[in-house]
């Protein structure tokens, strides 16, 4: 974001920036929000945490940003233990929380106060503020109180403000919620620009297109466990030979039709039916289409909708959390 | 050279809490008490036969009252930061929890001292005379400092314990009323008071602050006032410990 080189890693460049081994955390000593989570984040990568609400993403972020102490497990951030080196870790990271966080003052003053809190000189703080206000389209609302602006503007202020200080790792907890398409892209491109300069990013999102666009690797987390973890490319390649067929029938008994279709397709495809619709994952879509056509003709079923498409990260996600008929094995 | 963390937090607290609304509450309200009560109750005070100016009696009381106002600002700061997400944001920054806590207490103390100084200025404008002896000013300064820390810590203790902003505000309003009016801020401890009220007066730390400040202000400081300052010091240590413990155990993470 800024001209001068700001990141000189204190740890060995080849060391993981974050390493987690068997992390467990319980808020009530009965249920585990994190239940045996292990992963590493490499320097200079964008690591995505994908999951539903309550999956454990924010708990994981809170642990990595030293806000909570884990029940058990071994966590290292920048080579340090959050339980003992919290302040040293925090002085080298940036955090954009999921919820709002503002001082009860103007947008401009929020930037100034934040710069001051991070020990940025007045002149440099002013320079950064002007750059960020312009870059994130906030110049027009600089004199307005942070709590009087729209949800999307608040989000932009919050993300932009975090770039007032230098950091080695940036934690972004659902940073694009409420942003329009242009601002979302501006934000993601800004993060990419920082990554090219050496920043490591841990990014949680619901939006899988964003994860696809930004992340190098991603973990799908559900019920406190990591279900899959791989590079985005590999995740999609797990389904590389397969394509998805979306099918809706217009008449007849859908249960009978989809049962018969499952039998005919055999092991080369999986069918997940919901009412009159089904999602079919097929290694040979041509063969699957001809079998669908044969069966529908023989039973007098009209095909209302038929579409063949490439697998997306969304398919990977849905299937991994058990919404696509099968659950992927953890790595 | 950047300021140390604690001072940065104090500076930030002052910057974001010195909007006109907050200043009116912090300084305007005690100032109005001084003017309205000082002049309004003058006739009643004279009828009592003391012969002295009620305004002169009230001035050190209102200076002491500032420590409660400053303390309530401290608790409100914690709640505002919690409510607007800045508590967890700051605690993911380069600060420790203790630095944050002491940042608020130091800010409360500065507000207490600043507010008292302003009240002293108002009194000078109204009465044309205020104490200038270094010893008297030193005792006033030390007592206001202790009182601000006491009430700052007390309000932080309450803020750390309660689970909602509404609950905190309700407790604060009730406490402010009892603490202010069951003290020697507005009137002396008289023998005609019911026993319960008398006990409340005597255990109320604001009474110790008001007595010591009034003693130093009017040159009538006695050994009891000095004992009360010592007792206040001991109470500060206890409340500080409780506030720190409650705050360190409270959940600061964002939802």
The number of distinct structural domains of chain A comes to 3
Fraction of residues in helix of chain B: over 70%
The number of helical segments of chain A is 11
SSE order of chain A, one letter for each helix or strand: EEEHEHEHHHEHEHEEHEHEEHEH
What is the mean pLDDT of chain B?
87
Beta-strand portion of chain B reads under 5%
Q: Please tell me the total number of domains of chain B.
A: 1
Classify the fold: give the CATH topology of the largest domain in chain A.
Answer: Rossmann fold
How would you characterize the overall build of this protein?
The complex is a heterodimer of chains A (331) and B (255). Chain A has 331 residues and is α/β, with parallel strands linked by helices. Chain A folds into 3 domains: 13-92 and 167-231, 3-Layer(aba) Sandwich (Rossmann fold); 102-166, no CATH class; 241-310, Alpha-Beta Plaits. In chain A, 34% of the residues lie in helices and 26% in strands. Chain A is built from 11 helices and 13 strands. Chain A has helices at 57-64, 86-90, 107-117, 122-135, 151-162, 181-196, 208-214, 232-237, 254-265, 285-299, 313-320, and strands at 18-26, 32-41, 46-50, 72-77, 93-96, 169-173, 200-205, 217-222, 225-231, 243-249, 269-274, 277-282, 303-310. In chain A, the strands form 3 sheets. A 6-stranded mixed beta sheet of chain A has the order 5-6-7-3-8-9, with helices on both faces. Chain A has a 4-stranded antiparallel beta sheet with strand order 11-12-10-13, with helices on one face. In chain A, helix 3 crosses helix 4. The longest helix of chain A is centred in the middle third of the chain and has 16 residues, at 181-196. The radius of gyration of chain A is 24 Å and the shape is elongated. Mean pLDDT of chain A is 85; it is low at 3-10 and 324-331. By secondary structure, chain B is mainly α. Chain B has one domain (5-42, 53-249). Helix content of chain B is 79%, strand content 0%. The two termini of chain B are 35 Å apart. In chain B, 45% of the residues are buried. The mean pLDDT of chain B is 87. Chains A and B meet through helix 2 and helix 3 of A and helix 1 and helix 5 of B.
């Amino acid at each position: 974001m800024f001209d001068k080189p700001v990141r000189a890693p204190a740890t060995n460049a080849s060391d993981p920036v974050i390493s987690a081994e068997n992390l467990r955390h319980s808020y009530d000593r009965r249920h585990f929000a994190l239940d045996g989570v292990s992963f590493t984040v490499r320097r200079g990568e964008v690591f995505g945490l994908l999951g539903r609400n309550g999956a454990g993403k924010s708990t994981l972020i809170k642990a990595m940003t030293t806000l909570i102490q884990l029940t058990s497990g071994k966590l290292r951030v920048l080579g340090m233990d959050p339980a003992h080196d919290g302040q040293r870790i925090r002085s080298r990271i940036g955090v954009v929380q999921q919820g709002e966080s503002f001082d009860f003052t103007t947008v401009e003053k929020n930037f100034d106060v934040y710069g001051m809190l991070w020990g940025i000189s007045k002149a440099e703080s002013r320079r950064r503020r002007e750059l960020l206000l312009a870059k994130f389209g906030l110049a027009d609302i600089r004199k307005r109180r942070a709590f009087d602006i729209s949800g999307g503007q608040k989000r932009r202020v919050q993300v932009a403000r975090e770039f007032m200080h230098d950091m080695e790792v940036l934690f972004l907890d659902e940073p694009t919620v409420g942003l329009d398409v242009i601002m979302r892209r501006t934000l993601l491109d800004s993060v990419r620009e920082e990554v090219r300069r050496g920043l490591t990013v841990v990014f949680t999102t619901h939006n899988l297109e964003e994860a696809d666009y930004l992340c190098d690797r991603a973990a799908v987390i559900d019920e406190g466990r990591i279900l899959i973890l791989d590079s985005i490319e590999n995740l999609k390649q797990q389904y590389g030979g397969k394509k998805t067929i979306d099918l809706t029938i217009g008449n007849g008994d859908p249960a009978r039709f989809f049962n018969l279709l499952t039998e005919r397709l055999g092991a080369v495809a999986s069918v997940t039916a919901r009412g009159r619709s089904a999602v079919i994952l097929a290694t040979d879509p041509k063969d699957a289409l001809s079998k669908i056509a044969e069966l529908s003709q023989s039973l007098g079923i009209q095909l209302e909708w038929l579409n063949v498409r490439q697998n997306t990260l969304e398919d990977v996600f849905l299937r991994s959390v058990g919404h696509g008929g099968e659950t992927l094995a953890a790595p | 050279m950047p300021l140390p963390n604690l001072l940065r937090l104090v500076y930030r607290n002052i910057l974001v809490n010195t909007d006109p609304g907050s200043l009116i509450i912090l300084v305007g309200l005690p100032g109005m008490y001084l003017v309205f009560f000082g002049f309004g109750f003058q006739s009643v005070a004279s009828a009592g036969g003391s012969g002295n100016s009620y305004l002169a009696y009230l001035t050190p009381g209102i200076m002491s009252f500032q420590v409660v106002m400053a303390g309530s600002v401290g608790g409100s700061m914690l709640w505002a930061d919690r409510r607007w997400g800045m508590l967890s944001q700051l605690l993911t920054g380069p600060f420790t929890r203790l630095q944050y806590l002491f940042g608020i207490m130091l800010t409360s103390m500065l507000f207490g001292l600043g507010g008292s100084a302003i009240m002293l200025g108002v009194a000078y404008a109204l009465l044309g005379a205020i104490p200038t002896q270094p010893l008297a000013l030193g005792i006033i300064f030390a007592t206001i400092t202790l009182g601000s820390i006491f009430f700052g810590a007390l309000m932080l203790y309450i803020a750390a314990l309660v689970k909602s902003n509404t609950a905190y505000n309700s407790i604060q309003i009730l406490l402010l009323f009892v603490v202010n009016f069951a003290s020697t801020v507005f009137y002396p401890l008289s023998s005609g008071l019911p026993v319960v009220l008398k006990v409340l007066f005597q255990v109320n730390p604001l009474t110790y602050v008001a007595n010591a400040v009034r003693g130093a202000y009017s040159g009538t400081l006695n050994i009891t006032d000095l004992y009360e300052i010592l007792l206040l010091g001991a109470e500060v240590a206890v409340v500080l410990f409780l506030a720190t413990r409650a705050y360190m155990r409270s959940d600061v993470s964002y939802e």
